[in-house]
Amino acid sequence: MAYLRMRGITKMYPENNVLANAEVDFEVRRNEIHALVGENGAGKSTLMKILYGLERPDRGGIELEGRPVHIGSPLEAGRLGIGMVHQHFRLIPDFTIAENVVLGVEPVRRGLFLDREKAQASVRAVIQEYGFSIDPSLRVRELTVGQMQVVEIIKILYRRAQLLILDEPTSVLTAQQIQKLFLTLRHLRDIGKTVIIITHKLGEVKEISERVTVMRAGRVVAVRDTAEVDERELSRLMVGKAASLQVRREPAARGRAVLELRQVCLLGRGQDHPLLDRVDLTVHAGELVGVAGVGGNGLAELEDVVSGLRRVSSGRILHDGQEITRLDARELRRRGLAYVPADRLHRGSSLTSSVMENMIIASHHRFLRGGVLRRRQAEGFASRLAERFSIEGDPRVPIGTLSGGNIQKVILARELASRTDFILFSEPTWGLDVASSEFIYERIMEIRGQGLAILLLSSNLDEILSLADTLVVMYRGRVVARLANSGAVSKELVGEYMLGLKEDRP
Amino acid sequence: MKPWEVVLSLVHNAVGIMTPFLLAATGGLYTELAGMLNIALEGLMLVGAFFAVVFAGLTGSLALGVALGIASSMLAALLFGLVTLKLKANVFIAGLATNLLASGLTVVLAFQLFKNKGVVRFELGSLPVLSVPALQGIPLLGGLLLGHNLLVYVSWAIVLASVVVIYRTPFGLRLRGTGLNAPTVASLGLRPQAYQLAGILISGFTCGLAGAWMTLNLAAFVPNITSGRGWIALVAIYLGNKTPVGIVVASFVFGLSEAFSNYAQGALKVPADFILAFPYFITVLAMILYSMWRHYRARVR
Amino acid sequence: MKRWSRWRELLAGTAGLSVTLGLSFLIAVALILLLSKQPLATIRWFFIGPFTNKYYLGNMLNTAVPLVFTGLGIAVAFKSSVFNLGGEGQVYSGALVTTVICLALPAANGYGGGLASLAGAMACGAVLAGLSGLLKMKWGTDELISTFLISSAVGFIVNYFITGPLDDPANNLLASYAIAPQYFLAGIFPPSRLNVSAGFAVLAAAAVFFLLNYTHTGYEMRMCGLNREFSRYGGINVSAYVVLPLVLSGALHGLAGGLAVLGTQHMAVKDFSFGMGWNGIAVSLIAKNNPLAVVPAAVFFAWLEAGAKAAMLHSDVTFEIAAIVQSVIFYLVTAQALYGALRRRKVRL
Lengths: 506, 301, 349
Prior knowledge:
The structure holds 3 protein chains of 3 kinds. By secondary structure, chain A is α/β, with parallel strands linked by helices. Chain A has 3 domains: 2-239, 3-Layer(aba) Sandwich (Rossmann fold); 250-337 and 420-506, P-loop containing nucleotide triphosphate hydrolases (Rossmann fold), CATH 3.40.50; 350-418, no CATH class. Helix content of chain A is 31%, strand content 26%. Chain A has helices at residues 44-51, 74-79, 97-102, 116-129, 145-158, 175-190, 202-208, 231-239, 299-306, 329-334, 355-359, 375-388, 404-417, 434-449, 461-467, 491-498; strands at 2-13, 18-29, 33-37, 59-64, 67-69, 82-85, 108-109, 113-114, 163-167, 194-199, 211-216, 219-225, 257-266, 276-284, 288-292, 314-319, 322-323, 338-340, 368-369, 372-373, 422-426, 453-458, 470-475, 478-484. In chain A, the strands form 6 sheets. Chain A has a 6-stranded mixed β-sheet with strand order 6-9-10-3-11-12, sandwiched between helices. In chain A, helix 13 (404-417) runs parallel beside helix 14. The radius of gyration of chain A is 25 Å and the shape is globular. In chain C, helix 1 (2-35) runs antiparallel to helix 2 (39-47) and helix 4 crosses helix 10 (240-265).
């Protein structure tokens, strides 16, 4: 019999007319680890937010142990024994572990005062009961990412949750931390809890879950026993067709070294290891260097350092043989360095400004006459770019009214318009639909053919494997592998490097 | 007077004068910890000041005056809170609105009630002064800490209570959690806005008391009697590093600078306007030093 | 379709504003009903009074002039996402500097000396506000509070000069010596005090509009105001745009004070500029920080003040009811619950 049954769940986000969930039926059995998989935007998180009381469905109902229940808020979900670990942790760094855990259900002394001793003791009891080892008096700020996740789990266990929802729990974890998490989850299942784990990593589905529900475009497309499906079939179910990128990569002539990083280090506040640890990297003209890595292993920091938004702690960066280590983003722009950032909605664009104003941010000097901005010329420039990149919409409307794919095209158009010999891409297709992704891949291949030096940072392995000439893998801020991307490099091999299972010392 | 006597009387006066800073800053601390900028301290104090002395004059009871002054100030705080939290107005603009309302309303009412837009005097007894003859003999303690009026000691009690409330109660934990990370507090099913409103109301309470201290001491209402003390209290919160103890120190510094101003006005030949500007210069200077300290500390780490 | 959505945008924007202004009128009426013994007459004087004769009308428009300048000063700062709460002191000290320069040059040419005195006023405001900008750039000192504190301190110093060294014993006012007549700005609507500075105000609004929307500097300023991270990424010198908007804002405030001396006061009067700085903030917010809309918004605010003044002169309420009505506008003008619901932009991700 089903422990949890969600029936006919329909949820529409009126702000953007997205049907996030369409007639979704979802069942979980007691005492199982159930994987909920799907691509970005398939509707997994929405479904779980409904279950946890953070969103209200437009239609549909929820039954727990055969009884219909109404879940209007996280508080009511908690009373029903449902707890959720969010993808982005909901922790207060300045509080101790114990304070974070008891917040909202504090033990009280003499009816009024916070009983700190009892809080510590009862949190410690939960920690021991479930076999964790962590000191509840530590401040969350001092913890590793893996430990923070443990705190999140303790938080819901302290509230006596029977059903645990984990939203993409492995996305920020290292390989060992993932193994530890899975041990914990199995243990929880063995003592009678039920677990729903949201992920889009198929290997993990196979490893941890008993059953799997696949979602695509707001609908459930399959429910299987995990043992009976292989990763290829899951992948086919998730994307609708066997996922393979159709990118033609012509062999290109490698030219001079355009960008060089030499022994670049970046130290972070309160970190036990450097965020970037003696990174050496060279990008030649006509070469695409792809850097792969799991989130939290230095890709974001590499992006900031190469773009001049963050100063290195030591080491040198050279452009065409000239020192640019100390230059800031403005001076790098003057040298013509182009950059498509991962955070395209905040760093890459100004959502309330017009498409035109977004397009000329790096080149508005070109439209000046005596300090006056010639709007007509700027608008003409924007229209021409919009046309060339088939961007829909009037250049005078705010860029925030465009779709994600079109916003990224605007950014791409702007960056490619600056005459440059080097361009940095970070997560260029994250969250985009297939058509937009392919468009962007074509453009990238085109400029590579024109002899630009390209640095591509991406957590999407397929993307890196299909585009890169040279493949670099980062783990804990270090370059752990540098491979020429011939047909011989397999996804599995790169994956082992990414998870720190394997390491070359180049 | 000998120099040390001057210093002693300066410190004694400072301990009294710091009271409105201390009260307003302590109340403002609750709002600040709940993650809201409270620019309305000035206006809330002014409301409290006006109604405390008016009600005391009308009823003839100092206690009733204090109580109703506090109630009026809390009512103004409630308005400020509802406009910010319910109507989602910008907290800083709504704070300015509160200050503007307070200065307009008090003058309009003074005109309406007493046909007077200047200084309004009342026949009032003076606030009870704490004197413990047994302790009076102790040289330093007696001279500095005793002989103030009752509200001064009430303000100390409020500071002590605040240490407990902020750090030792579930309410304090949630309040601080709201300021540090409101989405987390909301994800636990708590309502961050409730704690923010509570913080605003508490600031209304203490500001009402602070205002009452000013007018009941004088037995008169002077238009804009608060004259920027609410702003200085706001700075005291930052300089006190957002802790009650730090606020005591910062308030004392401001109290001392005002006490010195008063002394200088009488004893030294300095124009009164320079003296009045002095606390502001001190405050700006303190703010600059504080931000420099933070700036370089962040670098070193 | 596009045109329709633009119209809807505009309508929704005005709907919120109408609610705000309507409510402030209601409060005004309610206050008068409550406080006045002859409410009908008072209401009439409050709303219509400023339009009943040339003297009142001209003075009302003249009251709007400094508000246009302070409103523009705030709009420049807000568009760049920096705050200037020191308007009061910047206006006041600008007035003092203009007076001092004019008094120092009693026989100079009216145009040359007048321009020099206004330049001094602008420089004074610019330095006061710019100082907060520099502190913010250098050490991150919160400009919101530092502008206020510096301005308050400066206010006392100005008081000292007006009532001390510059005080004219011949008049009974707390005011300085009068400036020489060649500096007086030409009146344009006698017998009222309206003068050519009204024209300057309109020109200034157009100039600030042009600066913000059609120049390099304006573009960079607005971009920094909307999204500092994006601006840094795009290669704009973002730290300069903490200082520059405050310098401009301070200069406009200083100019407000200087022109008030040359056009209206002809001397520095103690506390004459009280409220001009604060009201500039409300004016700018009503105008949604659009420099062209600042002009009608300033006239509207001046109308409230002139109405309150007329009601005070001809009836039995005091002038400060204007402050209460203005505070209602202050409370509601940023209230998103009134504005946002209709206007929320679709931002698809």
